[in-house]
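Q: What would this complex look like in 3D?
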Amino acid sequence: MKEKIALLVGRFQPFHKGHLHAVMYILERHSYLYIGVGSALESHTKRNPFTFSERLEMIRLALEEAGISRDLYYIIPIPDSKYHGTWVSLVKILIPKFDIVYTNDPLTRILMYESGYNVEHIPYFHREIYTGEEFRNRVVTNREWREIVPNAVYNYIMKNKLYTRIIQLWKTDKVR
Amino acid sequence: MKEKIALLVGRFQPFHKGHLHAVMYILERHSYLYIGVGSALESHTKRNPFTFSERLEMIRLALEEAGISRDLYYIIPIPDSKYHGTWVSLVKILIPKFDIVYTNDPLTRILMYESGYNVEHIPYFHREIYTGEEFRNRVVTNREWREIVPNAVYNYIMKNKLYTRIIQLWKTDKVR
Amino acid sequence: MKEKIALLVGRFQPFHKGHLHAVMYILERHSYLYIGVGSALESHTKRNPFTFSERLEMIRLALEEAGISRDLYYIIPIPDSKYHGTWVSLVKILIPKFDIVYTNDPLTRILMYESGYNVEHIPYFHREIYTGEEFRNRVVTNREWREIVPNAVYNYIMKNKLYTRIIQLWKTDKVR
Amino acid sequence: MKEKIALLVGRFQPFHKGHLHAVMYILERHSYLYIGVGSALESHTKRNPFTFSERLEMIRLALEEAGISRDLYYIIPIPDSKYHGTWVSLVKILIPKFDIVYTNDPLTRILMYESGYNVEHIPYFHREIYTGEEFRNRVVTNREWREIVPNAVYNYIMKNKLYTRIIQLWKTDKVR
Amino acid sequence: MKEKIALLVGRFQPFHKGHLHAVMYILERHSYLYIGVGSALESHTKRNPFTFSERLEMIRLALEEAGISRDLYYIIPIPDSKYHGTWVSLVKILIPKFDIVYTNDPLTRILMYESGYNVEHIPYFHREIYTGEEFRNRVVTNREWREIVPNAVYNYIMKNKLYTRIIQLWKTDKVR
Amino acid sequence: MKEKIALLVGRFQPFHKGHLHAVMYILERHSYLYIGVGSALESHTKRNPFTFSERLEMIRLALEEAGISRDLYYIIPIPDSKYHGTWVSLVKILIPKFDIVYTNDPLTRILMYESGYNVEHIPYFHREIYTGEEFRNRVVTNREWREIVPNAVYNYIMKNKLYTRIIQLWKTDKVR
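A: Here is my prediction, written as structure tokens for the whole assembly.
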């Protein structure tokens, strides 16, 4: 297993401690990790408040803070495909050869599995706290959210005042 | 009426006994039937689990089983248009000349009616049982669903284990 | 302020008395007004029943009825962008130079603000009555809706029987 | 004829004296004119250097200069449709009811004709000089182009230095 | 080989004697044939004058005329994908399971080959005459084109006066 | 200047010695470089034969071979925008904050300049040899192309037999 190349798929809105735990879990088992950032061109929605460029910076800062070498991973955006049936081929256009896929998202799992990939679950790490949804709910209701994300992510969000965007977006009645 | 060409529009997720009843009802009244499969490129969603190619095979098997001649109908995919206001023109690109439209979907009815087509309702046939929604709900909750679809459709779904896809998709929190 | 050019963004489904009030409020403060009609290519949905061409006619009739000179405003359609992050650049392609943006929609406010524009709230005018949502709810439940819109809009909707489209669309279970 | 509403379709890259002549020709024959600006969201290409907002301003300035009342016409952008077969329905979404179409573009003529519209040719007015292509060629080769466009258009292009964009774009080897 | 299912990919603008020859060649070797009609939603361009619905009718009439049973083939539209890298997955959404692909188009060959499919050439049949390009050139220059297509196709084009569309389209300077 | 962050935009089909020269030129002047890979989702065309994942691997191998530290640059895909007028905002979604843009493409230069960016030319480095066009022409005509690209790129193309794709694509008459 150790020599295999892994792909981790997520939206990372934002990159939280559960994600960090997943990256470390995978890197214990495999030699290299592609981090595929899904819905990469989406931003300014309730579920996807951050742009890809913001997510890229947060992930890189968090992994640097955690002492994970840049020689072990690469972060690549994956736009949504128009149809679910073409999503895997979009992934192939963007991500170099990988051997195994890590994700807990049911749709990603089915699509990858039906295309012949090995798909693995990521063991949940305190999922009652460490989710993007919990993060966004706490920001909006003005509760403590600092513990959910790595320090580097907390500092990035505070410095750029990105919490205000989330609070503003919550007021919209837009479906997306 | 008998010499007129009819168009039946539906998503057929999957083709159930209500659909079969509709086909027979229309073919009693008209000489030829185009079956337009809507949202044709959608798949792997809660509302649209099956691909067009799967739906095409299921419909053909079910109509063959029912003894309906291939000389009487043709099945054509209709992708969703980007805007509702252009949908009818997309139908015209894909479906040869037809005289009358059968559908119970309110949106399809309005769009076709505003474009000058004759639009007819299809008499419901035990609609408390024979709907795609009821099928999908039963599959997900592990209840008997065999009675909802023609035997040929049941066998196709079982042989290709397509029920597992529906069960998996149910776990996602994706909006689509 | 008086010499500045303003942009008012809305969907105007339909143009109601709250919108008319907003136009008059802005024209008291600025020399010229661009009225940007959002989701311009959407139509035949619950939230967006009217086409742009219908909305254009309703707005022009209502402003003429209110005695507002055509030398003071121009109405321009703005299609939805694929991604929120590109929406402001789409606005720039379509709307000539403007100095200040009026909108109460949180998403529009954030996008314009992050692009460096001055963004102003519009004082609400009896918002418990004058909203597109209230209009559409009343039409669907067959309650009096005439008081919500300017007379010219009422007459346009009645003459073209556009209320029937709204009532029909309400029966659909489509997400959009 | 006089009471009919006409639609003039063009790209107006830029609005030249041939276009002005066409507008006057049509307004002698009909009571109202919609000016549909095609490829409305295209810009910064060799064939389509100007944005819609720039084209809108140039057309309005030229018609004002020519003394044509704003009560007689309205300018509306028409984005390209994805497929030619859906273009006419996109026009219907955007342009209020019209009775007759004026255009010399063969494709527009066929599409409108096949949809049942009356389509008329516009008599050419010194077509050896007054075309968008001639304008763009002269700008790029640094020859006199002032005579091709109305004075108001000339002044607009000079004031905003838009000729530099055309000259720059000519250097690209992009297909679009 | 005989029991294998084949896919023939082409644009069929229009279906000519070379195509008919290919269908017969393939059906001598395989038990069933899917005819995938590429660029299915394109129409009204120089290279793609006919809509899918017109092409569908022409192909069915020609195969009926040639005495080829409807039990041996099925015709399915394939829209262009946005990116070449996702085209094969679009084919999989639309066409039921096939074992071998027949096409002479270099791009289709590469895409299918890189996705692991068996790809076969079709022996050319008087390619100096039987091509869509030759057909369109002759129509436009008013030369005899009847010999290029099956009689059924000739009659369809004459009856619906579709040659006029090709002649008109030739006058456009549109790139597409 | 030294502390500024630069963006280099190109298609890198493939990454040749001219590109390598540009990267070194920029890194002498600035502290960090984002390499934006344009037309990122295009592949399998004459002008864009390689996928993004292939281009990513080639660039990383070439820069590693040249001894350029991974701490100095990051490679990010930029899909084409639907309209040129929205391209810069797509770049902003994907690329973190940058101060200066390096490109010789006229269109990119205009779009960035009109959005207020500093744009710099890259001094050409033996442009008669080191271009993607020259590379592709030599591959197709079976002439020596090894000298055009860094060794690492040569090895990657040979190992994966990617030259065959270019040769095959040259046979197509497709416009794209």
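A: To summarize the key features: The beta strands of chain B are 5-10, 32-37, 73-77, 100-102, 118-120. Residues 5-169 of chain B form a domain with the Rossmann fold fold (CATH 3.40.50.620).
Q: Very helpful, thank you.
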